[in-house]
Amino acid sequence: MSKKRVVLAYSGGLDTSVAIGWIGEQTGAEVITVAVDVGQGGEDLEVIRQRALDCGAVEAYVADARDEFAEEYCMKDLQTHGMYMQAYPLVSALSRPVIVKHLVTAARKFDAEVVAHGCTGKGNDQVRFEIGITSLAPDLKCLSPVRDLALTREFAIDYANKHNLPIETTHHNPFSIDQNVWGRAIETGYLEDLWNAPTKDVYNYTDDPAYPPLPDEVVIKFEKGIPVEIDGVAVTPLQAIEEMNRRAGAQGIGRIDIVEDRMVGIKSREIYEAPGAMALIEAHRELERVTLDREQARFKERVALRWGELVYEGQWFSPLKRSLDAFVQDTQEYVSGEIRMVMHGGRATVTGRRSETSLYDFNLATYDAGDSFDQSHARGFIELTGLTSKLAAARDVKYGRGEAMPKLKLS
User: Which is catalytic among the residues 111, 176, 208, 371?
Assistant: First the structure.
């Protein structure tokens, strides 16, 4: 009878390398690792694959998902303006469902019954992984070696040294860092004291905005809400993000320092860097101001708030998220045109807008000759708009509940 198999989300680091053997010892199962490139940089996928095999994995699945992540996940966030707590562009939360998708694919390919991840029992990612996995494959079981099998960091170091695993055990970063092409998340260490300001070593994607280079003017062309050109050069979504990461990052754009409400009920100090994401969202937001109907735009703000919460909470594959996606996609039909933006000293400022599908009518907006706005309509419009308030005020006066008139001081 063949052994049971466990698919493990594998980063190539200490904890998940040790987890390969530890899961085998604790469960008797064979371990298949899954490493997914979402633009986090670092080691080559082939190096990571070989390390997994050297640490005892029976199979090592790797996937270059950078374009997939940019096109199917980051672009949805861009079009929606999904920002948790109106500040965080969902850097880590966005990458989890694409990783989950490949974990489930590997589980089916290698006949695994269990999917494992390296998350603790204290953070958000355990929720995102496990809800995502069971949403795509309700029959699969989930396992966390750190949470469920008592795999502490101290134990991991001892285990790696004892078994001569090909993994570095001496270097320990004071921060917990997660990064991908959409941005970078930094937490723990001295940042847990809310009074401590971030020091320069925290940042990697952005330069100090206090000492910026000369202003950088960029023109971004969108088609149906997707960036397709930068300064006249055609780009894919991945290339657009990478180019804006470089240019906006050089100007110190996209630094975020917030105290965040985690799903497990605690507050956590988080530092984010998302230069490309924040610059692109600002450009896209301004193009929507030109191309979206007023009521459509107002309602989309409410959709964006709920959408961001759903993604943050690991509900990427939920029915409500899918329905909200359909609404957002419909709003993007006419979000095409160009945005000119000047980036400098931590700010991205829109200075120009141009769109063939714009709802802006110069002849209606101008106060100069050629004004086509019929001002005679204004009086009736005001009467109708204020009618309900006028009736309510009259009732308040009748029953003595009206607002007291302010006393005017006459000189």
Answer: 176
Residue 201's φ and ψ, nearest 5 degrees, are -70, -10
With 0-12 CB in 10 A as exposed, 13-18 as middle and 19+ as buried, what is 233? exposed
Among the options 5, 15, 144, 184, which is catalytic? 15
CA-to-CA distance for 281 and 259, rounded, in angstroms? 22
Query: Look-up: residue for tokens 């930068």?
Result: 230
CA gap 115, 4 in Å, rounded: 12
Per-chain mean pLDDT for the chain = 94
The mean-pLDDT minimum among 17-21, 118-122, 235-239, 389-393 falls in: 118-122
CB 327 within 8 A of CB 301: no
Tokens of 272: 């984010």
Least confident of 18-27, 265-274, 368-377, 399-408: 399-408
Is 33:109 a contact under the CB 8 Å cutoff?
A: no
139 is catalytic: no
Distant-in-sequence, close-in-space partners of 352: CB < 8 Å, separation ≥ 6:
219, 338, 339, 340
Which residue type does 205 have?
A: Y
What's the pLDDT tens digit per position in 346-384? 999 999 999 999 999 888 888 888 888 888 898 999 999
Instruction: Check 5, 49, 66, 96 and give the catalytic one.
Output: 96
Picking from 27-31, 221-225, 331-335, 361-365, which range would have the lowest pLDDT averaged per residue? Answer: 361-365
Is residue 125 annotated as part of the catalytic site, yes or no? Answer: yes
Beta carbons within 10 angstroms of residue 53's beta carbon: 13
Q: What is the dihedral of CA 378, 382, 385, 391, to 10 degrees?
A: -150
Is residue 316 a contact partner of residue 325, using CB atoms and an 8 Å limit?
Answer: no
